[in-house]
Amino acid sequence: MENEDINEFFNNNNQFLRNVAVDNVIFGYHEKELKVLLQQPIPLDKWTVTGGYIKRTESIDEAASRIAFQRTGLAGLFFQQFRSFGTPTRGKDGGLTAAHLKEMTGVDVPEDSWIFDYFVSVAFYTLTEFSKVAPTKGELEADCQWWPVSELPPMMFDHAMIVAEALKALRLHIAHYPIGYELLEEKFTLPEIHSLYETILGKSLDDRNFSKRLMATGIIIKLNETKKIGAHRSPFLYKFDKEKYEEGLKSGVALAF
Amino acid sequence: MENEDINEFFNNNNQFLRNVAVDNVIFGYHEKELKVLLQQPIPLDKWTVTGGYIKRTESIDEAASRIAFQRTGLAGLFFQQFRSFGTPTRGKDGGLTAAHLKEMTGVDVPEDSWIFDYFVSVAFYTLTEFSKVAPTKGELEADCQWWPVSELPPMMFDHAMIVAEALKALRLHIAHYPIGYELLEEKFTLPEIHSLYETILGKSLDDRNFSKRLMATGIIIKLNETKKIGAHRSPFLYKFDKEKYEEGLKSGVALAF
DNA sequence: CAAATAGTGTCTTTTAGACATTATTAA
DNA sequence: TTAATAATGTCTAAAAGACACTATTTG
Predict the structure, then answer these.
(1) Does residue B256 lie in a domain region?
(2) Range of the domain at B8
(3) Which nucleotide in the DNA or RNA is closest to residue B257, CA to C1'?
């Protein structure tokens, strides 16, 4: 972005909706840990979930997808709106100032720029397969990287709560819909998906009961291949039955643990 | 509102947030029928759910409560945010025009007034006890009244979908949280709450299993009084155990039927 | 053969679901 | 006494939950 564009952006930009924006909590799973993609809007010690403004020409769903694409490089991800947040003070708590932006961009941002206004945030979460994501920071951000959900850095505004609520929504969701397709590699082992469920739910699940019930849904298929994991018995590989998975997303699957 | 206030309202009003508003689907239960409070913004054949703009000084929850209070006269109702709606065209479909407003208020409303803009709606539903509500139309509305959920009039914008989604959310909610406290009179009979559940869920529930499971939650208390209902056996009256009810709202109650 | 991890079945308890008879009230 | 509605318990089937041993792999 050129300086004049940045100027235009902060002044009387008419491309985006005022007073409403989208936040998107992007989850990834890696090494038995649930991670969330955070961005650092200013080179300070505070982070936010990924998010952005809504174009006048797009729906809120399109805005959420666009934001996920910009930060991950991936399209067609599974995403879900879970709640909206709106209090007059939510943008004020320890946030961005005109001085910070001046420092970052070299542009004088008016103290009364629309971006400092009261914003209602429509929040989504998005599921991604960690290894496919190339975290990409925006032009006005200092950084963008994965953080373990269990060890978040200091969060700006109400974003710690947004992550907590997203996780709550994901945990609720996992009992009713098939999760895992977007978080695992195409072929995975039973112990892998077992760990994923344990990680998301934050509790251990009996391995025998877990596989019994997961297999009973019919959404995963056992392959005639195994994965070599060193000096141990080789676990079988599985993949999702795409058709049953899609149907499960529509009509639901009972998988409460 | 005086004409100059109305003028101010439609022109450069700075009291409310732009591009975001609240819709509140107010449910009431009466004579074994679930009803929804609708308003008619223009004296035509189209209705909307109750809703309004968000003041710069209030949270979205406060806006939803305020709207419910304005339309019902009741404060402290149970309400729940369930989804946000936002597509660039949602305000355009068969809606309000400047001409309609001129006709209603006598004031010239600019074609480019902020109220015709793309609005993201944060939607809530609210539960009310029908008999306590005095439906009150707003100054800029033509009418406000109850409609059976099963026989809605022609709805403006995407409001038929908003009601459908609210009902879906209520049905999901009823399986996890105690519902009924806000919809029934203080003292009620088992057949009454049984009918309420059947109405909300849209299916019949075995009376023996229903009472067994409802009583097992402990959230209602049998009183030593009966209700006279004419030439029939008098049913016992019950009331909610306020403490257990509050706790159920917080930590959930399993009541899937 | 030792160490690590995968894979699998049975029994018990709990919950859900189907189902029918007796009791009360007032005309 | 009849017509209407309320109240209530048992049996069966299905699901959830607890639990432990055998199999495979490589060093």
Answers:
(1) no
(2) 3-173
(3) C16
B212: three-class secondary structure by DSSP: helix
Residues A169 and A187 both lie in one domain: no
Work out the burial of residue B220: count CB atoms within 10 Å of its CB; fewer than 13 is exposed, 13-18 middle, 19 or more buried.
buried
Domain boundary among A132, A148, A173: A173
| Residues A115, A140 contacting (CB under 8 angstroms) | no
> Over its length of 257 residues, how does chain B's per-residue pLDDT go in tens digits?
567 777 777 777 789 999 999 999 999 999 999 999 999 987 778 999 999 999 999 999 999 999 999 999 999 999 999 999 999 998 876 667 888 878 877 888 888 888 889 999 999 999 999 999 999 998 888 899 999 999 999 999 999 999 999 999 999 999 999 999 999 999 999 999 999 999 999 999 999 999 999 999 999 999 999 999 999 999 999 999 999 999 999 999 999 89
Clarify whether residues A79 and A58 are in a common domain: yes
B254 beta carbon < 7 A from strand C?
Answer: yes
Q: Tell which of B17, B80, B81, B87 to mutate to test the A interface (max A CBs under 10 Å).
A: B17
- Angle of helix A207-217 versus helix A190-201 axis, rounded to 10: 100
Count: domains in chain B: 2
Q: Measured in angstroms, what separates residue A206's CA from nucleotide C11's C1'?
A: 16
Residues A145 and A196 in one domain: no
The Cα A165–Cα B27 span in angstroms is 26
Backbone CA torsion sign across A86, A89, A93, A96? positive
Please report residues of B whose CB lies closer than 8 A to that of A14.
Answer: none
In a domain, residue B257? The reply is no
Alpha-carbon span B28 to A59, nearest angstrom:
31
**Residue A15: φ, ψ to 5°:** -80, -30
Question: Alpha-carbon dihedral of residues B155, B157, B159, B165, nearest 10 degrees?
Answer: 140
Please check whether residue B60 is in contact with residue A120, taking contact to mean a CB–CB distance below 8 angstroms. Answer: yes
Q: Is residue A127 part of a domain?
A: yes
Q: DSSP E strands: which ranges in A68-182? A: 78-85, 120-128, 143-148
pTM: 0.95
The answer to whether residue B58 is domain-embedded is yes
